[in-house]
Amino acid sequence: MKMQNVRGARNEQDGLIAESFDPGTRFDMERALDKACAALPGKLNNHDFRRRVAVKLADRVRKGPCSADVLNSAALDEVENLRRRRGR
Q1: Taking the complete model, does pTM exceed 0.90, yes or no?
Q2: Dihedral sign computed on CA atoms, order 88, 84, 86, 33
Q3: Fewer C-beta neighbours within 10 Å, C or N terminus of the chain?
């Protein structure tokens, strides 16, 4: 899943995320998304859960510039939140 195709941003439930991120930021976001979602158990590693993590990453970037480490941490935090909600 590419970050430019993420649906479900809080301010645009049915559309694409309106912001355009620079290529370097988008690359870091995609890597963080892939790395964090690899930690999800098979049945949770699906489009819906990946989208939720991607939206959290986009929310974080909207707050201001951040490093790849910050994005990795944000993605892993959201994966843990999803796991806890599902009792995993």
Answers
A1: no
A2: negative
A3: C
| Separation of alpha carbons 13 and 85, rounded Å | 21
Give the span between the Cα atoms of 11 and 66, in whole angstroms: 21
Q: List, in sequence order, every residue forming a beta bridge with 9; answer none if it has no partner.
A: 12
- Interatomic CA distance for residues 37 and 54, integer angstroms: 10
What whole-number distance in Å separates Cα of residue 4 and Cα of residue 21? 8
Q: Quote the distance between the C-alpha of residue 65 and its chain's center.
A: 16
Can you tell me whether residue 33 is helix, strand or coil? helix
**What value, to the nearest 5°, has the Cα angle with vertex 7 and ends 3 and 10?**
110
Model confidence over 27-48: pLDDT tens digits? Answer: 999 999 999 988 877 777 888 8
